[in-house]
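Hi everyone, sorry if this is the wrong subforum. Our group has a chain we'd like a structural model of before ordering constructs, and none of us has done structure prediction before. Sequence below.
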Amino acid sequence: MTTQGIKTVLHPVSDLAAAKAVYAALLGVQPVADSSYYVGFEAEGQHIGLVPGGGPQGMTSPVAYWHVADIEAKLAEVTAAGATVKEPAHDVGGGRLVATFTDPDGNVLGLLQD
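Answer:
Right subforum, don't worry. Here is the predicted structure as tokens:
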């Protein structure tokens, strides 16, 4: 089963307001989502998100999210190949499902299903 590519990257930040200004300058656009717990930008077909304090996953570095049509099938496929589920698929609002897993070296990768 193929993916739809990396379209979402979430960055953990310590100061949401400061990071928002830097990313707005970098991307040349204002955020499409702007709250105390998440700031998101749409730029050239990609979604760039800022998560204060690493968010619920306790992120310590950016996580790239591969968009997929069937998140459970893809999780099964990558775990059968040797990945370990870090965060099972769950709804983050509006029917959008996300999950994270680690590769054999411990790198965190994300899956997203709209």
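For your construct planning: The mean pLDDT is 92. The domain at 6-113 is CATH 3.10.180.10 (2,3-Dihydroxybiphenyl 1,2-Dioxygenase; domain 1).
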